Structure formats: C-alpha cells, structure tokens
Amino acid sequence: MSLLAAKRLEKHYGNHVVLENLNFSVEPGEFVTLVGASGCGKTTFLKMLLGTEATSRGSLTLDDKPIPNEPGPDRGVVFQKYSVFPHLTVLGNVIIADELHSSKLLGKSFGAAKRQAIEKALARIDEVGLSHALKKYPHELSGGMQQRLAIAQALMMRPRILLLDEPFGALDPGIRQDMHVLINRLWQEQQLTIFMITHDLKEAFELGTRLWVFDKTRHDPQAPEAYGATITYDLPISRDRPSNELKEALHQGGLQTHTQETLL
Amino acid sequence: MKRFINLAPSRGGRWLLGLLPFLLLAMLYMSLSNARLAENPNDRLLPTPSTMASSFYHLATAENVRTGQIVLWTDTFASLERIVIGVGISALIGLVVGILNGGIPLIRAKLSPLVTVASLIPPMAILPILFIAFGTGEAAKIALIVIGVTPFLIRDLQGHALRLPDEQLIKAQTLGASSWQVLLRVLLPQLTPRLLNATRLALGTAWLFLIAAEAIAAQEGLGYRIFLVRRYLSMDVILPYVAWITLLAFLLDQLLAWISRLAFPWYHSGEGDNS
C-alpha cells in the first residue's frame, strides 16, 4: 500500500486545463522534488495535496482514501513567505501547535500543560538551531531564521507528509546550503515524506530521492489553455551517484523539452 | 548639495520647526486681538489671553452657586464618559463583527452588504429618530456615537482580516486549528492592534457626533457649554474650551497609541518615521 497515489488526476479551471493525466504512487519516506517552468501547475499540485484546491477528475488518495478537502495536521507545510505568525515569538510560534491540540476552547495552555508544550517546543527549536532567539518576534529574524522557525513549527505535531513550496527560494546561497543540511537531517531522523517545489535543479538533485519534471506534452499554439502539464519525467535519484553524472545521463537521453531549456 | 527630499532636520531642530507654525498663529491672533481691543476695549470677539485664562480659571475652580458643582469638571467628565462608553461599545462591536465578517465567508455574505449600506447613512440625519427612540438622555448621545463610528470600524477590520495572507490561515489549519481557534489565535491577535489604530482615526468623528448631540440636547458637557455661551458671544470661554477639547482628544489619541506600542511591539516593527 502506497502512502499517496494518483490515477489520471486532472485539474482545470473552466476550460483552462492546468494539470492532466497525473499517475504516480509515493511510498512513505520518499523525498520528491518538483521542478518545472513557472506557471506549469506545481503549486496547484501542492495545493491539491494540501487540500485547498479540489481535484477536477481522477483520483488522489492518501492511504487509499480520497485526500481530505481541507488542510489538516497530517500534512505540514512551509511556504516561501508568510509561513510564521508575526504576532507570536519564536517560542509562541512553535508551541501554538501543541496548544491548539490540548486546549480546544482557548487554543492556549496554562500551567503544567504549558510547561510540557514548552519542553517539547524547545527540542524542536533546538533542532533547527534557534535556541538563542526564543523571545524574538519574526520581524527581528533574518529570512533564513524565519524559514527555520517555519520548519520547526511545521514539524511540531509530527506530520507524516511535509510540503515545501520553494522554501529556500528567497535565501542567500550560503544560508541555502545550511538549510539543505537541516532539511536532510530532519527528513532522515523523522522519516518524513517530503514534497518540495524548487526552481533550483541542483537543489532538486541534491535533496530528493525522486525528481518530477512538470511540463506540457501537448501544446496547441491556437489554444494554449487546452492542454495541461503532467509529470514528464519521474526519475529516481540515487544518493550515491553524484548529480552531475545524472545530469549528463539526462542529456544523453535526449530530453529536449521546454522544461530542460528553461532549467538546465 | 543634497537633494531637498534627503534633507532631514535634527531632533532638536524638528521640535523647533514643529513649534514655529504655532508661534506664528499665536502672534497673528495677538496682533489682531490687540488691534480690535485698541479700538474698543469692550470687544468680545478676540479676547486677550489673560481674559481667557481668568475665565477658564474661574470655570475650573469656582463652584456653581446653585448646584455646588464646578462647571469645567462636570462638563469634562460628562463628555468623556459619553465618548469613552460610545467608542468602547463601537470598538467591541467592530472587533467582533469585523473578525466574523473577515474570517467566515458564510457570515460575510450575509452581513457585509448590510454594513456597507449602514455605513452610508449619515448619522446626523437619524439623530431625531434617536431622540424619539431613546429620549434626550445619555442613551441617545451614546447611540449616535456608536452608529456613527461602528460601521467604519467594522469595514476597516473586515478589510484588514481579508488582507491577511492565506498562508497563515492554511498554516494554522495544518497545525490542527479549528475554525474557532483560527479566529481566536490568528485573526483576533492580529486585528486588535489594527482596531486600536482604526479607533484612533475614528476618535475625531466620535468627538464630532458627541459635540453635535450635546449642542442639541444636554444639561452638561463640553459641547453643551460652548453652544450655551455662544448666546453671550463669550469667546473668552469658547476658545479655551476648544483648546481643552483638543487637548483631551490629543491625550486620548496618544493613550491609544501608547497602549498599542506597548502591547503589540511586533505590529509597529514596519513603521518608519512617524513623527
């Protein structure tokens, strides 16, 4: 039984077909990286996994059941921006997940429950290396620290699936490298299944165990909205093999697509 | 030579420059007042500052022979009570309805058109209805402030709630938040500082309605006093009263600003030069 599976999955807005003919199955523990030209439907796909966009046709199942049509605690998410709450401190941003669970009415814990939540949160915050900034508000943090906080927050309730929408897109190259190490470690330690959208092909090869290239296979110049994108390449990435070799293999395979022109 | 837009006064210079227009206005008033009084020492239109000061001092210290009350303080407390209760009720309604409207589409669909229409009714036009419905006591004056200020607050908060990034609402849901928890822990704390800000802007309107209501029917109050002594052309009372109302309005405004900065430091992080 696979964790997540799609059969002839399609998404369209009226006549505008965004995604079509998606077929895949993802096992627990995979790290899927999604690449493709801007506006080809990667984010729409992620929103379908998240539950904020409905599927138009076909099936998308989580544990063999149709995916819930609204966000839930089993699927954590980190966006490129606005991922953390500006009105809460670092500590507040992380313990809120626990508080929402333990206090249904107020969404805020007190006394022993709060101490327990703080203890749990401190471990998460320590994992992402923000222990020195517990009392700071997000606006006092750098972009990289904000994304670390967002990751700690998303992992507080131990989701099975983590969805990342260009989480490192706005960061400096050096900081991005640190974040790669961090996300890689968390993925292995917590046995997460990760879907990550990225524009950086190097990043996609470096982090993922599986690379999906989204692109249109059919294109009608008279009606550009008639056909949607699909997963044109579904490549397993071996961790042992350096990514350069794989890139060459891609070239030799003669993958001359629109995507390759824009990305490689 | 730097560009004009890049020249900024120093801290001390800013104070002096800010004081300058006030000094100029004061000098202008003094010269006009002196000119009129030189012609007719009994002129009442532009009294000297010392006349105004002694009238004001008299109002602030002397007990009314008949009631035993001191006029200025009775007026001030009556007006402040009305405006604080009125604005307080407005803020409470504005916050609750604004959050519900901004956060829950099913409620917004029902209430939003009503609020938009209600906000376009000129409150002064329905003042007679209020006097008929509530009598000429306190209730009508407070109701006028509430009716005048609440729709603005609701619309401001609703708009602000809708402008919160969707990412935050989605994030809260992935952390397991229910609808109620999203309202309570995401919308409420982020809209409260906005409410303080909107209330500051609405205070001017609230004073307008207060003075208007007091002018028409009241036994005491700052607006009542001004309109009462107008009959005797007592500019020596009216001018200090206007200054006093301005001072009270300024203090209320600064109080709200101070509370907001103290309680919501994160909200004021993006502010630049707000002098």
TrEMBL record, chain A:
GO terms for molecular function: ATP binding. Coiled coil: none annotated. It comes from Vreelandella neptunia. SUPFAM superfamilies: P-loop containing nucleoside triphosphate hydrolases. InterPro entries: AAA+_ATPase (IPR003593), ABC_SmlMolc_Importer (IPR050093), ABC_transporter-like_ATP-bd (IPR003439), ABC_transporter-like_CS (IPR017871), P-loop_NTPase (IPR027417). Transmembrane segments: none annotated. It holds the Pfam family ABC_tran. Residues 4-241 form the ABC transporter domain. This is ABC transporter ATP-binding protein. Keywords: ATP-binding, Nucleotide-binding, Transport.
TrEMBL record, chain B:
Gene3D superfamilies: MetI-like (1.10.3720.10). The chain crosses the membrane at residues 83-107, 114-134, 200-217, 238-259. CDD domains: TM_PBP2 (cd06261). Pfam families: BPD_transp_1. PROSITE patterns: ABC_TM1 (PS50928). The keyword Transmembrane helix applies. Residues 76-260 form the ABC transmembrane type-1 domain. It comes from the Bacteria. It is found in: Cell membrane. The keyword Transmembrane helix applies. InterPro entries: MetI-like, MetI-like_sf. It is a multi-pass membrane protein. Keywords: Cell membrane, Membrane, Transmembrane, Transmembrane helix, Transport. PANTHER family: ABC TRANSPORTER PERMEASE PROTEIN MJ0413-RELATED (PTHR30151:SF0), ALKANE SULFONATE ABC TRANSPORTER-RELATED, MEMBRANE SUBUNIT (PTHR30151). Belongs to the binding-protein-dependent transport system permease family. This is ABC transporter permease subunit. The lineage of its organism: Bacteria, Pseudomonadati, Pseudomonadota, Gammaproteobacteria, Oceanospirillales.
